[in-house]
Amino acid sequence: MSVMESIHVGGKWRAATAGGTREILDPADATTLAVVAEGDAEDTDAAVAAARRAFDSGEWPATPTAERAALLRRVADLLQRDREEIALIESRDTGKTLEEGRVDVDDVTSAFRYFADLVMNESGGRVVDAGSADVHSVVVHEPVGVCAMITPWNYPLLQASWKVAPAVAAGNTFVIKPSEVTPLSTVHLVKLLAEAGLPEGVANIVTGAGDPVGARMAEHPDVDLVSFTGGLASGTKVAQAAAPSVKKVALELGGKNPNVVFADACATEEGFDTAVDQALNAAFIHSGQVCSAGARLIIEDSVKERFVSELVARAGKIRLGRGTEDGVECGPLVSQQQLEKTEGYVASALAEGAKLRCGGERPAPSQVRPAEGYFYLPTVLDDCHRGMRVIREETFGPILTVESFSTEDEAVTLANDTEYGLAGAVFSSDTARARRVAARLRHGTVWINDFHPYLPQAEWGGFGKSGVGRELGPHGLAEYRETKHVYENLRPAPVRWFAG
């Protein structure tokens, strides 16, 4: 298999300087999908230098807003043109179903169109009343400069778009490092940016490992902003590496997300069916490999046993397999490492007293095709408590834990008893209660009687150790800008502060 030239620097595709390569595996059967270039610090320095030149001397930062918006719309159109191809790439690279891949492409398209519209609808700045007709005072927004972007393996194209679209809309240049496990759709996106007419040097990509590529990006003195999405441990290292140069830092570090279900949500058969269905979606979409996964079911005592029994029955019927096959509802985990991590969390939970209600193991060869993939059965762990590692830590696998409560205050206390604060949900037929609880939850996104939807026009990010900064929405654009106050004296005259 030939090596893909997956490093793009200054408008040119090339191999790694040191000749390094990496096999990209299909998680459904552990076979090789592609061989890509494995960049290092030298490749990273070259990419940052190209982005620096393009920002300091190139045309993009001064390109009129209308032209930037038009380019973003062209990218959106190209994404839809290549929708099936990209969805297939994403499905085979990450293991998710083909339909999930299609949804991802549509969501990426929406992000590009949203930021195009956002910058087009802005004025030339915010006029500030200085209290004098002789002063013109305005606050303007300028691109921050060279942006380093480090993206995760679970939603490679989607997470790239949340960074690339606002960065380009604001007039920045960038270097992006996709996860070394799932780089293929990001490579395709960079090709579409070039096809849409983005000037050379504005978009650069280096494929390779977090250390050295991501580490060098975070510490590089010519990088003005680093945006990272991934795990807490890696995000902490990024922040530490960025600190000496005092660059802007945006971090989205995952979550341990509660799904609070009150008994009144289950008072009717329709309500019960909806709450169970949503709990399944919250926990097991993309095999639980979602930063906002509703991995903690917090259920009211009076309906707990009926609810969990039905949940377990349905979880046992989830069809596993290769994401591109018809009828498959859940694909494999992304890697052998993630599979072993999932097994470790389940083992620790059982050792700490959890009750296994379903799953808890790899499927038998007769249960899934192909049998060589990194598959793990959807797992429900009952009788869980805050002292368990599976409750405290982000598992990123098909594991749902069950906790119970008897009062509203107890539900809120449980839901907020986490060092993370990315997302959460409340299910209740009592609108006042649902909104009251939602207001008390310390999470960046709270759903009421739903789970997982997001809007490109609404900010995304978390409280606590879920990170700093926001993506999407107006604040998502603001992350990629510097704010400048321009104060103009229209009738300059001596101040006469000093007598001489």
Automatic annotation (TrEMBL):
Q: Where is the Aldehyde dehydrogenase domain?
A: 13-486
| The name this protein goes by in its record | Aldehyde dehydrogenase family protein
Pathway(s): Amine and polyamine biosynthesis; betaine biosynthesis via choline pathway; betaine from betaine aldehyde: step 1/1
Family matches, as InterPro entries: Ald_DH/histidinol_DH, Ald_DH_C, Ald_DH_CS_CYS, Ald_DH_CS_GLU, Ald_DH_N, Aldehyde_DH_dom
Signal sequence coordinates: none
User: Which keywords describe this protein according to UniProt?
Assistant: NAD, Oxidoreductase
Q: Give the similarity note.
A: Belongs to the aldehyde dehydrogenase family.
The active site annotation covers: 252
